[in-house]
Amino acid sequence: MAKTKLTLVPVYLDDLKADAGVEISILCLGCKHFGKLPITCLAYPEGIPEKILNGEIDHLEVFEDQKGNFVYEQK
Known about the structure:
By secondary structure, the protein is an alpha+beta fold. It has one domain (1-75). The protein contains two helices and two strands; from the N terminus they run ββαα. The protein has helices at 26-29, 50-53, and strands at residues 4-13, 16-25. Strands 1-2 form a two-stranded antiparallel ribbon. The radius of gyration is 13 Å and the shape is globular. It starts with a strand and ends in a 22-residue tail after the last helix. The mean pLDDT is 83.
């Protein structure tokens, strides 16, 4: 289980614009495949699954539901 870091991300809901605190795996934050917002990466261009994002599962191997063969690689 990876450590996480509280990260502020912008949230847009109708006429509301605010920042929300999200716990993101330090592996995701340090990965060269990690995207900007929305929270995506090359393996999960539609959004990183919560179990990976929150550090419950390390993304050190290829999973069936991902795109390509991308796994954690240090920036």
